Amino acid sequence: MNGRRRVVVIGGGLAGLSAAVEAADGGAGVTLLERRPRLGGATWSFERRGVFFDNGQHVFMRCCEAYRRFLERIGSAGDVRLQSRLEVPVLRPGGPAGAIRRSRGPAPLHLLASLATYPHLSRRRRLGVVRAALALRRLDPDDAALDRLNFGEWLDARGQDADAVAAFWDLIVLPTLNVPSAEASLKLAAKVFRTGLLRRADAADIGWAAVPLSALHGEAARRAIEAAGGEVRTAAAVRGVRLGAAGLPVVELDGELIDADAVVVAVPHDAAGGLLPPGAVAHQERLAELGTSPILNVHLVYDRSVTELPMAAAVGSDVEYVFDRSAAAGLNDGRQCLTISLSAARRHIGRRSADLVEHFSAETARLLPGAAAARITESMVTRERAATFVGAPGSHALRAAGPTALAGVFLAGAWCDTGWPATMEGAVRSGVQAGRLAAEHAAVLPAPGSASAVPAESAEAA
Fold first, then answer.
1. Is 441 in a helix, a strand, or coil?
2. Distance from C-alpha of 45 to C-alpha of 55, rounded to nearest angstrom
3. Is the distance from CB of 55 to CB of 382 less than 8 angstroms?
4. Is the full-model pTM beyond 0.85?
5. Among 39, 40, 412, 23, CA closest to 236
Protein backbone atom coordinates (compact mmCIF):
# COMPACT_ATOMS: atom_id res chain seq x y z
CA MET A 1 0.00 0.00 0.00
CA ASN A 2 3.07 2.27 -0.29
CA GLY A 3 2.74 3.45 3.30
CA ARG A 4 -0.89 4.51 2.95
CA ARG A 5 -3.42 3.69 5.62
CA ARG A 6 -5.24 0.46 4.79
CA VAL A 7 -9.02 0.29 4.43
CA VAL A 8 -10.42 -3.22 3.97
CA VAL A 9 -13.82 -3.45 2.27
CA ILE A 10 -15.77 -6.68 2.74
CA GLY A 11 -18.21 -7.30 -0.10
CA GLY A 12 -18.02 -6.64 -3.83
CA GLY A 13 -21.56 -5.51 -4.54
CA LEU A 14 -22.46 -1.94 -5.43
CA ALA A 15 -22.12 -0.82 -1.81
CA GLY A 16 -18.67 -2.37 -1.47
CA LEU A 17 -17.45 -1.20 -4.87
CA SER A 18 -18.53 2.39 -4.24
CA ALA A 19 -17.02 2.27 -0.73
CA ALA A 20 -13.71 1.03 -2.12
CA VAL A 21 -13.60 3.72 -4.81
CA GLU A 22 -14.48 6.44 -2.29
CA ALA A 23 -11.87 5.27 0.23
CA ALA A 24 -9.21 5.10 -2.50
CA ASP A 25 -10.13 8.61 -3.63
CA GLY A 26 -9.76 9.68 0.00
CA GLY A 27 -6.13 8.58 0.01
CA ALA A 28 -6.43 5.13 1.57
CA GLY A 29 -4.81 1.96 0.36
CA VAL A 30 -7.82 -0.29 -0.32
CA THR A 31 -8.16 -4.06 -0.19
CA LEU A 32 -11.56 -5.33 -1.35
CA LEU A 33 -12.58 -8.88 -0.41
CA GLU A 34 -15.44 -10.69 -2.14
CA ARG A 35 -16.41 -14.25 -1.26
CA ARG A 36 -17.77 -15.06 -4.72
CA PRO A 37 -15.59 -15.44 -7.81
CA ARG A 38 -17.17 -12.33 -9.35
CA LEU A 39 -17.95 -8.74 -8.47
CA GLY A 40 -21.24 -6.89 -8.72
CA GLY A 41 -23.28 -8.44 -5.94
CA ALA A 42 -26.89 -8.61 -7.11
CA THR A 43 -25.96 -7.05 -10.47
CA TRP A 44 -24.03 -9.50 -12.64
CA SER A 45 -24.04 -11.19 -16.05
CA PHE A 46 -23.12 -14.44 -17.72
CA GLU A 47 -22.83 -15.78 -21.26
CA ARG A 48 -24.69 -18.74 -22.67
CA ARG A 49 -24.24 -19.88 -26.27
CA GLY A 50 -23.06 -16.47 -27.36
CA VAL A 51 -25.85 -14.52 -25.62
CA PHE A 52 -25.17 -12.35 -22.56
CA PHE A 53 -27.82 -12.50 -19.86
CA ASP A 54 -28.04 -10.28 -16.79
CA ASN A 55 -29.16 -11.91 -13.57
CA GLY A 56 -32.03 -9.42 -13.57
CA GLN A 57 -33.25 -6.15 -14.96
CA HIS A 58 -31.97 -3.19 -12.94
CA VAL A 59 -33.10 0.36 -13.64
CA PHE A 60 -32.40 3.76 -12.14
CA MET A 61 -33.94 7.21 -12.40
CA ARG A 62 -32.50 10.61 -13.15
CA CYS A 63 -32.86 11.47 -9.45
CA CYS A 64 -30.41 8.66 -8.57
CA GLU A 65 -27.57 11.13 -8.39
CA ALA A 66 -25.11 9.12 -6.28
CA TYR A 67 -25.40 6.11 -8.58
CA ARG A 68 -24.91 8.25 -11.66
CA ARG A 69 -21.82 9.90 -10.12
CA PHE A 70 -20.46 6.43 -9.36
CA LEU A 71 -20.89 5.44 -13.01
CA GLU A 72 -19.05 8.59 -14.04
CA ARG A 73 -16.22 7.84 -11.63
CA ILE A 74 -15.64 4.28 -12.88
CA GLY A 75 -16.00 5.24 -16.55
CA SER A 76 -19.38 3.59 -17.20
CA ALA A 77 -21.64 6.63 -17.67
CA GLY A 78 -21.60 6.17 -21.44
CA ASP A 79 -22.80 2.57 -21.12
CA VAL A 80 -26.32 3.35 -19.91
CA ARG A 81 -29.43 4.59 -21.64
CA LEU A 82 -31.37 7.39 -19.91
CA GLN A 83 -34.72 8.59 -21.20
CA SER A 84 -34.85 12.22 -22.27
CA ARG A 85 -38.36 12.28 -20.87
CA LEU A 86 -40.24 9.73 -18.74
CA GLU A 87 -42.42 7.45 -20.85
CA VAL A 88 -43.62 4.03 -19.73
CA PRO A 89 -46.06 2.33 -22.12
CA VAL A 90 -48.61 0.33 -20.14
CA LEU A 91 -50.03 -2.64 -22.04
CA ARG A 92 -53.13 -4.70 -21.38
CA PRO A 93 -53.97 -8.00 -23.16
CA GLY A 94 -56.58 -7.34 -25.82
CA GLY A 95 -57.05 -3.73 -24.79
CA PRO A 96 -55.73 -0.28 -25.64
CA ALA A 97 -52.24 0.65 -24.55
CA GLY A 98 -51.77 3.57 -22.21
CA ALA A 99 -48.70 5.31 -20.91
CA ILE A 100 -47.31 7.08 -17.89
CA ARG A 101 -45.35 9.97 -19.37
CA ARG A 102 -44.40 13.48 -18.40
CA SER A 103 -45.05 16.72 -20.18
CA ARG A 104 -42.88 19.82 -20.12
CA GLY A 105 -44.78 21.32 -17.19
CA PRO A 106 -43.48 21.55 -13.60
CA ALA A 107 -44.07 18.84 -11.02
CA PRO A 108 -46.63 17.60 -10.17
CA LEU A 109 -48.54 19.06 -13.14
CA HIS A 110 -46.18 17.20 -15.51
CA LEU A 111 -48.22 13.98 -15.12
CA LEU A 112 -51.75 15.38 -15.41
CA ALA A 113 -52.06 15.09 -19.18
CA SER A 114 -50.93 11.48 -19.05
CA LEU A 115 -53.38 10.59 -16.29
CA ALA A 116 -56.25 12.40 -18.00
CA THR A 117 -56.13 9.95 -20.91
CA TYR A 118 -54.94 6.84 -19.04
CA PRO A 119 -57.21 4.07 -20.38
CA HIS A 120 -56.67 1.54 -17.58
CA LEU A 121 -58.62 3.56 -15.02
CA SER A 122 -62.05 5.13 -15.11
CA ARG A 123 -62.35 8.89 -14.95
CA ARG A 124 -63.44 8.67 -11.31
CA ARG A 125 -60.42 6.56 -10.41
CA ARG A 126 -58.06 8.89 -12.29
CA LEU A 127 -59.34 11.84 -10.26
CA GLY A 128 -58.89 9.77 -7.11
CA VAL A 129 -55.27 9.03 -8.04
CA VAL A 130 -54.60 12.76 -8.43
CA ARG A 131 -56.13 13.56 -5.04
CA ALA A 132 -54.14 10.79 -3.33
CA ALA A 133 -50.92 11.93 -5.04
CA LEU A 134 -51.42 15.48 -3.78
CA ALA A 135 -51.97 14.14 -0.26
CA LEU A 136 -48.82 12.02 -0.59
CA ARG A 137 -46.88 15.11 -1.66
CA ARG A 138 -47.65 16.71 1.71
CA LEU A 139 -45.98 13.89 3.65
CA ASP A 140 -42.42 14.14 4.91
CA PRO A 141 -40.36 11.02 4.03
CA ASP A 142 -38.00 11.85 6.92
CA ASP A 143 -40.83 11.49 9.44
CA ALA A 144 -40.04 8.23 11.24
CA ALA A 145 -43.67 7.96 12.38
CA LEU A 146 -44.70 7.18 8.80
CA ASP A 147 -42.82 3.89 9.03
CA ARG A 148 -45.43 2.61 11.47
CA LEU A 149 -48.13 2.98 8.81
CA ASN A 150 -49.03 0.72 5.91
CA PHE A 151 -49.13 2.33 2.48
CA GLY A 152 -51.93 0.09 1.23
CA GLU A 153 -54.12 1.04 4.17
CA TRP A 154 -53.26 4.70 3.62
CA LEU A 155 -54.36 4.39 -0.03
CA ASP A 156 -57.56 2.58 0.95
CA ALA A 157 -58.43 5.39 3.36
CA ARG A 158 -58.18 7.78 0.40
CA GLY A 159 -60.52 5.84 -1.85
CA GLN A 160 -57.94 3.88 -3.83
CA ASP A 161 -59.52 0.52 -4.63
CA ALA A 162 -57.87 -2.65 -5.93
CA ASP A 163 -58.18 -1.56 -9.57
CA ALA A 164 -56.42 1.76 -8.92
CA VAL A 165 -53.67 0.03 -6.97
CA ALA A 166 -53.08 -2.59 -9.67
CA ALA A 167 -53.23 -0.19 -12.62
CA PHE A 168 -51.23 2.67 -11.15
CA TRP A 169 -49.77 2.53 -7.64
CA ASP A 170 -48.21 -0.95 -7.83
CA LEU A 171 -46.65 -0.16 -11.20
CA ILE A 172 -44.37 2.17 -9.24
CA VAL A 173 -44.23 0.56 -5.79
CA LEU A 174 -43.37 -3.00 -6.86
CA PRO A 175 -40.16 -2.25 -8.81
CA THR A 176 -38.92 0.37 -6.33
CA LEU A 177 -39.77 -1.22 -2.96
CA ASN A 178 -39.90 -4.88 -4.06
CA VAL A 179 -43.13 -5.33 -2.12
CA PRO A 180 -46.70 -4.55 -3.17
CA SER A 181 -48.48 -1.47 -1.84
CA ALA A 182 -50.47 -3.66 0.54
CA GLU A 183 -47.25 -4.57 2.40
CA ALA A 184 -45.21 -1.38 2.02
CA SER A 185 -44.08 1.14 4.61
CA LEU A 186 -45.74 4.52 4.09
CA LYS A 187 -42.38 6.15 4.84
CA LEU A 188 -40.64 4.37 1.96
CA ALA A 189 -43.57 4.89 -0.40
CA ALA A 190 -43.57 8.61 0.40
CA LYS A 191 -39.85 8.71 -0.38
CA VAL A 192 -40.37 7.06 -3.78
CA PHE A 193 -43.25 9.26 -4.89
CA ARG A 194 -41.98 12.53 -3.40
CA THR A 195 -38.45 12.13 -4.77
CA GLY A 196 -39.24 10.40 -8.03
CA LEU A 197 -42.53 11.85 -9.23
CA LEU A 198 -43.84 14.77 -7.21
CA ARG A 199 -40.93 17.11 -6.53
CA ARG A 200 -39.02 17.55 -9.80
CA ALA A 201 -40.41 17.00 -13.28
CA ASP A 202 -37.45 15.12 -14.73
CA ALA A 203 -36.65 13.05 -11.62
CA ALA A 204 -38.34 9.84 -12.80
CA ASP A 205 -36.78 9.62 -16.27
CA ILE A 206 -35.70 5.97 -16.41
CA GLY A 207 -32.28 4.60 -17.24
CA TRP A 208 -30.84 1.12 -17.66
CA ALA A 209 -27.67 -0.64 -18.76
CA ALA A 210 -26.80 -0.79 -22.45
CA VAL A 211 -24.05 -3.35 -21.77
CA PRO A 212 -23.95 -6.47 -19.57
CA LEU A 213 -24.18 -5.54 -15.90
CA SER A 214 -20.87 -7.19 -15.05
CA ALA A 215 -19.15 -4.88 -17.52
CA LEU A 216 -21.06 -1.84 -16.28
CA HIS A 217 -20.32 -2.35 -12.57
CA GLY A 218 -17.90 -5.06 -11.49
CA GLU A 219 -15.31 -4.94 -14.26
CA ALA A 220 -15.27 -1.14 -14.48
CA ALA A 221 -15.04 -0.70 -10.71
CA ARG A 222 -12.21 -3.22 -10.47
CA ARG A 223 -10.22 -1.20 -13.01
CA ALA A 224 -10.89 2.01 -11.08
CA ILE A 225 -9.84 0.51 -7.74
CA GLU A 226 -6.68 -1.05 -9.15
CA ALA A 227 -5.79 2.14 -11.03
CA ALA A 228 -5.93 3.93 -7.66
CA GLY A 229 -3.44 1.44 -6.23
CA GLY A 230 -6.01 -0.80 -4.54
CA GLU A 231 -6.24 -4.58 -4.45
CA VAL A 232 -9.29 -6.67 -5.36
CA ARG A 233 -9.52 -10.27 -4.17
CA THR A 234 -12.39 -12.56 -5.17
CA ALA A 235 -13.12 -16.01 -3.72
CA ALA A 236 -12.03 -14.54 -0.39
CA ALA A 237 -14.53 -15.54 2.29
CA VAL A 238 -14.36 -13.43 5.44
CA ARG A 239 -15.14 -15.18 8.73
CA GLY A 240 -15.28 -12.18 11.03
CA VAL A 241 -14.07 -8.73 12.07
CA ARG A 242 -12.75 -7.85 15.52
CA LEU A 243 -10.49 -5.32 17.20
CA GLY A 244 -6.89 -6.40 17.69
CA ALA A 245 -4.55 -5.72 20.59
CA ALA A 246 -3.69 -2.28 19.24
CA GLY A 247 -7.37 -1.34 19.07
CA LEU A 248 -7.36 -1.57 15.27
CA PRO A 249 -9.64 -3.80 13.20
CA VAL A 250 -8.54 -7.28 12.21
CA VAL A 251 -10.26 -9.16 9.38
CA GLU A 252 -10.26 -12.93 9.66
CA LEU A 253 -10.29 -15.17 6.59
CA ASP A 254 -9.65 -18.91 6.42
CA GLY A 255 -6.05 -19.28 7.57
CA GLU A 256 -5.29 -15.56 7.27
CA LEU A 257 -5.57 -12.38 9.30
CA ILE A 258 -5.52 -8.92 7.71
CA ASP A 259 -4.67 -5.92 9.87
CA ALA A 260 -6.51 -2.76 8.86
CA ASP A 261 -6.78 0.83 9.89
CA ALA A 262 -10.48 0.84 9.02
CA VAL A 263 -13.00 -1.67 7.67
CA VAL A 264 -16.20 -1.35 5.67
CA VAL A 265 -18.60 -4.28 6.02
CA ALA A 266 -20.69 -4.12 2.85
CA VAL A 267 -22.74 -7.32 2.97
CA PRO A 268 -26.50 -8.05 3.19
CA HIS A 269 -28.25 -7.56 6.50
CA ASP A 270 -28.64 -11.28 7.09
CA ALA A 271 -24.85 -11.69 6.91
CA ALA A 272 -23.60 -8.49 8.55
CA GLY A 273 -24.49 -9.41 12.12
CA GLY A 274 -22.61 -12.70 11.93
CA LEU A 275 -19.35 -11.03 10.90
CA LEU A 276 -19.25 -8.65 13.86
CA PRO A 277 -19.02 -9.18 17.64
CA PRO A 278 -22.34 -8.97 19.53
CA GLY A 279 -23.42 -5.41 20.25
CA ALA A 280 -21.51 -3.89 17.32
CA VAL A 281 -24.71 -2.89 15.52
CA ALA A 282 -27.97 -1.55 16.91
CA HIS A 283 -30.62 -4.30 17.01
CA GLN A 284 -27.99 -6.74 15.76
CA GLU A 285 -29.94 -9.74 17.05
CA ARG A 286 -33.05 -8.58 15.18
CA LEU A 287 -31.61 -7.88 11.72
CA ALA A 288 -33.19 -11.07 10.36
CA GLU A 289 -36.57 -9.41 10.98
CA LEU A 290 -35.91 -7.22 7.93
CA GLY A 291 -36.67 -10.34 5.92
CA THR A 292 -35.94 -10.88 2.25
CA SER A 293 -37.97 -10.36 -0.91
CA PRO A 294 -37.17 -12.14 -4.20
CA ILE A 295 -36.85 -10.91 -7.77
CA LEU A 296 -37.27 -13.23 -10.75
CA ASN A 297 -36.52 -12.60 -14.41
CA VAL A 298 -37.53 -14.62 -17.46
CA HIS A 299 -35.33 -14.02 -20.51
CA LEU A 300 -36.72 -14.92 -23.94
CA VAL A 301 -34.73 -14.73 -27.18
CA TYR A 302 -36.96 -14.63 -30.27
CA ASP A 303 -35.87 -15.49 -33.79
CA ARG A 304 -37.07 -12.07 -34.98
CA SER A 305 -38.04 -8.66 -33.67
CA VAL A 306 -41.43 -8.80 -31.95
CA THR A 307 -41.72 -5.21 -30.63
CA GLU A 308 -40.19 -1.79 -31.15
CA LEU A 309 -40.78 -0.80 -27.53
CA PRO A 310 -37.58 -0.48 -25.47
CA MET A 311 -39.59 -1.19 -22.31
CA ALA A 312 -43.19 -1.47 -21.14
CA ALA A 313 -45.27 -2.24 -18.08
CA ALA A 314 -48.39 -4.39 -18.09
CA VAL A 315 -51.72 -4.60 -16.29
CA GLY A 316 -54.13 -7.51 -16.39
CA SER A 317 -51.19 -9.87 -16.91
CA ASP A 318 -48.64 -11.75 -14.84
CA VAL A 319 -46.01 -9.77 -16.74
CA GLU A 320 -45.01 -6.73 -14.70
CA TYR A 321 -42.31 -5.13 -16.86
CA VAL A 322 -40.67 -6.20 -20.10
CA PHE A 323 -37.41 -4.80 -21.48
CA ASP A 324 -35.70 -5.14 -24.85
CA ARG A 325 -32.20 -6.33 -23.90
CA SER A 326 -31.03 -7.23 -27.43
CA ALA A 327 -28.10 -4.80 -27.56
CA ALA A 328 -26.79 -5.69 -24.10
CA ALA A 329 -27.19 -9.37 -24.95
CA GLY A 330 -24.84 -8.90 -27.89
CA LEU A 331 -27.40 -9.82 -30.53
CA ASN A 332 -26.82 -8.47 -34.04
CA ASP A 333 -28.39 -11.23 -36.10
CA GLY A 334 -32.01 -10.05 -36.20
CA ARG A 335 -33.04 -11.85 -33.03
CA GLN A 336 -34.57 -9.99 -30.08
CA CYS A 337 -34.02 -10.64 -26.38
CA LEU A 338 -36.87 -9.65 -24.06
CA THR A 339 -36.55 -9.78 -20.27
CA ILE A 340 -39.68 -10.06 -18.15
CA SER A 341 -38.93 -8.66 -14.70
CA LEU A 342 -41.00 -9.73 -11.69
CA SER A 343 -40.56 -7.97 -8.34
CA ALA A 344 -41.69 -9.45 -5.01
CA ALA A 345 -41.90 -12.71 -6.96
CA ARG A 346 -42.82 -15.05 -4.11
CA ARG A 347 -45.65 -16.56 -6.15
CA HIS A 348 -43.31 -17.65 -8.93
CA ILE A 349 -39.88 -18.08 -7.33
CA GLY A 350 -40.29 -21.82 -6.64
CA ARG A 351 -41.73 -22.81 -10.01
CA ARG A 352 -39.77 -24.90 -12.50
CA SER A 353 -37.88 -22.89 -15.11
CA ALA A 354 -39.56 -24.73 -17.98
CA ASP A 355 -43.00 -23.90 -16.58
CA LEU A 356 -42.05 -20.24 -16.15
CA VAL A 357 -40.77 -19.99 -19.71
CA GLU A 358 -43.94 -21.60 -21.06
CA HIS A 359 -46.22 -19.38 -18.97
CA PHE A 360 -44.48 -16.09 -19.62
CA SER A 361 -43.93 -16.68 -23.31
CA ALA A 362 -47.72 -17.14 -23.56
CA GLU A 363 -48.30 -14.00 -21.44
CA THR A 364 -45.90 -12.03 -23.63
CA ALA A 365 -47.77 -13.15 -26.74
CA ARG A 366 -50.99 -11.82 -25.21
CA LEU A 367 -49.34 -8.42 -24.78
CA LEU A 368 -47.23 -8.33 -27.95
CA PRO A 369 -49.01 -10.00 -30.88
CA GLY A 370 -45.74 -10.20 -32.80
CA ALA A 371 -44.41 -12.65 -30.23
CA ALA A 372 -47.15 -15.18 -30.99
CA ALA A 373 -45.75 -15.92 -34.45
CA ALA A 374 -42.09 -15.88 -33.42
CA ARG A 375 -39.98 -18.82 -32.27
CA ILE A 376 -37.97 -18.74 -29.02
CA THR A 377 -34.38 -19.77 -29.70
CA GLU A 378 -33.00 -19.31 -26.18
CA SER A 379 -34.59 -18.94 -22.77
CA MET A 380 -33.29 -18.44 -19.27
CA VAL A 381 -34.74 -17.89 -15.80
CA THR A 382 -32.69 -16.04 -13.21
CA ARG A 383 -33.61 -15.83 -9.56
CA GLU A 384 -32.45 -13.59 -6.73
CA ARG A 385 -34.21 -15.23 -3.81
CA ALA A 386 -33.00 -12.65 -1.28
CA ALA A 387 -32.77 -9.64 -3.59
CA THR A 388 -33.73 -6.97 -1.03
CA PHE A 389 -34.96 -6.52 2.48
CA VAL A 390 -38.72 -6.23 2.92
CA GLY A 391 -39.69 -2.54 2.94
CA ALA A 392 -42.59 -3.12 5.32
CA PRO A 393 -43.82 -1.00 8.24
CA GLY A 394 -41.32 -1.20 11.07
CA SER A 395 -38.30 -1.75 8.83
CA HIS A 396 -36.86 1.74 9.37
CA ALA A 397 -35.94 1.09 13.01
CA LEU A 398 -33.84 -1.93 12.00
CA ARG A 399 -31.81 -0.18 9.29
CA ALA A 400 -28.37 0.56 10.68
CA ALA A 401 -26.34 3.74 10.45
CA GLY A 402 -22.86 3.67 8.89
CA PRO A 403 -20.69 3.75 12.06
CA THR A 404 -20.69 0.70 14.33
CA ALA A 405 -19.75 0.37 18.01
CA LEU A 406 -16.30 -0.87 16.89
CA ALA A 407 -13.87 1.98 16.29
CA GLY A 408 -12.92 2.10 12.63
CA VAL A 409 -15.60 -0.34 11.43
CA PHE A 410 -18.42 0.95 9.23
CA LEU A 411 -21.45 -0.56 7.51
CA ALA A 412 -22.67 -0.24 3.92
CA GLY A 413 -25.46 -1.82 1.96
CA ALA A 414 -28.85 -0.99 0.49
CA TRP A 415 -30.37 -2.15 3.79
CA CYS A 416 -28.57 0.57 5.77
CA ASP A 417 -30.33 3.77 6.78
CA THR A 418 -29.97 5.98 3.72
CA GLY A 419 -33.60 7.11 3.59
CA TRP A 420 -33.87 5.29 0.23
CA PRO A 421 -35.45 1.91 -0.42
CA ALA A 422 -33.30 -1.09 -1.36
CA THR A 423 -32.16 0.20 -4.73
CA MET A 424 -28.87 0.70 -6.55
CA GLU A 425 -29.00 4.33 -5.43
CA GLY A 426 -29.37 3.32 -1.79
CA ALA A 427 -26.49 0.85 -2.06
CA VAL A 428 -24.15 3.43 -3.60
CA ARG A 429 -25.14 6.17 -1.12
CA SER A 430 -24.32 3.87 1.78
CA GLY A 431 -21.03 2.82 0.18
CA VAL A 432 -19.90 6.37 -0.50
CA GLN A 433 -20.64 7.41 3.08
CA ALA A 434 -18.90 4.37 4.60
CA GLY A 435 -15.88 4.67 2.31
CA ARG A 436 -15.47 8.34 3.18
CA LEU A 437 -15.81 7.69 6.93
CA ALA A 438 -13.32 4.82 6.77
CA ALA A 439 -10.72 6.89 4.89
CA GLU A 440 -11.16 9.83 7.28
CA HIS A 441 -10.87 7.56 10.32
CA ALA A 442 -7.71 5.93 8.99
CA ALA A 443 -6.15 9.26 8.06
CA VAL A 444 -6.24 10.67 11.60
CA LEU A 445 -4.79 7.61 13.34
CA PRO A 446 -1.43 8.19 15.04
CA ALA A 447 1.57 7.15 12.99
CA PRO A 448 2.80 3.63 13.80
CA GLY A 449 5.48 3.72 16.50
CA SER A 450 4.47 7.10 17.96
CA ALA A 451 3.79 7.37 21.69
CA SER A 452 0.07 7.83 21.13
CA ALA A 453 -0.02 4.66 19.04
CA VAL A 454 1.17 2.45 21.93
CA PRO A 455 -1.73 0.36 23.31
CA ALA A 456 -2.98 1.55 26.70
CA GLU A 457 -1.93 -1.59 28.54
CA SER A 458 1.62 -1.30 27.13
CA ALA A 459 1.84 2.36 28.13
CA GLU A 460 0.85 1.54 31.69
CA ALA A 461 3.43 -1.21 31.90
CA ALA A 462 6.13 1.14 30.68
1. helix
2. 6
3. yes
4. yes
5. 39
